[in-house]
Amino acid sequence: MSFDAAAPGTSRAVWAGDPRLAALPARDLRGFGAVVVLAAHPDDETLGAGGLMARAAQEGAT
Predict the structure, then answer these.
(1) Separation of CA 13 from chain center
(2) Which pTM does this prediction carry?
């Protein structure tokens, strides 16, 4: 199974407009050598930790 953001569901505008998003603290991910994500269901890693994985990769983590 693959994740497609264009599929029906919660729109990007709704996610982006949620005020809780702006209230989340930024985390310094420098110094992490690796990140392991365990996900119970298909697309959980994308929806639940996609941003974390992208930021960790930008900081050099595998």
Answers:
(1) 16
(2) 0.55
